[in-house]
Specification:
single chain, mainly alpha, 8 helices, 0% strand, 157 residues
Length: 157
Amino acid sequence: MMRRDVLGQVQKAFAQDKDQIYLAIHIIHEIVNYTKQNGLIVLSKYMGDREEDQPYVLDLIADEKQWDIPLRQYLEFGLELLSEGSEPEKIEELLSNKYFANAYKEKEAVIAYIYMLGLQGVIEGRPFFETLEYYCSFVPDDEMERFETFCAQTLTA
């Protein structure tokens, strides 16, 4: 249901603010790399689940990259579910609920979907390039050249 809703908004989303969409993909890439090095438990926002000197992943990304993380509360909600070891189906269901509860439209809808697909990839241990294939499937044709350039730069960074 969420997928269908998002796909109906992709054209307007890319016309609205594609930079924020690419930023969301880049944030997922950073989370994937961080998780590979540190495990899932460190994705928790709560200090009791992390070492005392270990910053929260979204704070680390925001500070190091100087990025304003779009839909941060939505992503934090998903990261918490992930760090708790929730089943993929439960994460998808709860993130879908949160998506519809917030009535995300256009750019925000696409960003939420990017986050959900990215977190599913982390749970499944999917290589990031496979997650990029999912993202590629909903990029409009007139945006493909930029998307392919972005992917090449992101994967080599």
